[in-house]
């Protein structure tokens, strides 16, 4: 059966919303079975889970070029559906200066890069509902890393190699070209058998990306289809691609490939054996140098935290990496990047003036029940933070440019008392003593509490008295002694707590009513400095 005839039988390209290539066959998922024509015996229409698939054996007319053309029609249809979905829903939990999806679900930041005079940041987006369904990439642009504007939906899950999601990846800026690398996620058959390929897309003018299809189709030996999230670096005159992966023995590892031209890739090695059993999968690798020291950031899944309060198996870590003469790497000195509740799958980039700036997903893979879902959206990205390596330790501070959002400074003295800040969007500085408590986002029923436990010398962040519907409620971090200084970024339903000038950070989604704007302290007297933060450009389609 030639491809044109098959499209015709399916009721035309406009009735096809997915193309799949299961072993030796071609399948189209069709919208409306009523417009499917009378089928010859070699073509089958069958229900696969909740989709109708028209399948026949693949002949020589079903070329990748022909499928690519069909992909463009599917993409045009997907884009047309997005017009309304790109308008933001209103909800009092929405952030005023963080990036959140207009509606639907946001997860990882992607392709974060400075290219052609602008900062580019993409993100994973499921436009429909608050679930992880077929992912799109949204493209945001900024001149200053603070004001972000929605540029467009950059990539849609339109093709046979990414039909179930344009998954995460990074970008490379080369001359005038922006090249993004991502994992094409495909699910086949009733068992939803996973198939992953590493794909790319190119923009020659900084605008629309054009897919160039899969560049790595085969898996490296000894790993499962859980192989994804390409990160590319340039080292010793060649390109190296890192992928997060899972071995067939169910251990998380890092796969490395190299290339001369960014298009043809050769597998080199799996790394990370020195960590032994450290999770069943490593997602979202990022590798970059801080003061000439390479660092490796990743999201191991299936690990246990040292804290009894942290029951989430999906975590974040930063490690140091050294390369030998053959460019083989070894990983050491693991540190927790963020001790809060919601920090996952971060990406970083180098600013024009050489700072390493990181953005994370303020959310977690299994967390799907937030009060925001009733308004049709879930999750957001974190504030941007700057990373430095000081005496071998990672230090993280809020992006300097965020200071441009500050309004007037308010100095407040509190002695076992409270004050109404009349806003949930602020930056706050306070020095606290051991044994004292600070409550934020407070009303008569709800609050978030920070407690400095003098016995165990740890800071406890407790959101059990909030409207949280799912997830852990307490996080802790052990701190060095002396007073504890806090810089807190608040944005309606999030807190990012930078402790002791970047010694540790805690990121948290915290839901309390809109009117819960009080701040109080217990067992201490403190001077608090507060800036209300002004909203930058709204990052939605205008
Ligand atoms: C991490 C992750 C990535 C994957 C993406 C899919 O949150 O699972 O490994 O590429 O999300 O949205």
UniProtKB/TrEMBL annotation:
GO terms for cellular component: cytoplasm. The gene is scrB. PANTHER family: BETA-FRUCTOSIDASE. InterPro entries: ConA-like_dom_sf (IPR013320), GH32_Enzymes (IPR051214), Glyco_hydro_32 (IPR001362), Glyco_hydro_32_AS (IPR018053), Glyco_hydro_32_C (IPR013189), Glyco_hydro_32_N (IPR013148), Glyco_hydro_beta-prop_sf (IPR023296), Suc6P_hydrolase (IPR006232). It is an enzyme of class 3 (hydrolase). Gene3D superfamilies: Exo-inulinase, domain 1 (2.60.120.560), Glycosyl hydrolase domain, family 43 (2.115.10.20). Pathway: Glycan biosynthesis; sucrose metabolism. It holds the Pfam family Glyco_hydro_32N. GO terms for biological process: sucrose metabolic process. It is found in: Cytoplasm. Its EC number is 3.2.1.26. Keywords: Carbohydrate metabolism, Cytoplasm, Glycosidase, Hydrolase. Residues 421-528 form the Glycosyl hydrolase family 32 C-terminal domain. One of its GO terms (molecular function) is beta-fructofuranosidase activity. The keyword Hydrolase applies. CDD domains: GH32_ScrB-like. Transmembrane segments: none annotated. Belongs to the glycosyl hydrolase 32 family. It catalyses: Hydrolysis of terminal non-reducing beta-D-fructofuranoside residues in beta-D-fructofuranosides. It comes from the Bacteria. Enables the bacterium to metabolize sucrose as a sole carbon source. Residues 98-398 form the Glycosyl hydrolase family 32 N-terminal domain. This is Sucrose-6-phosphate hydrolase.
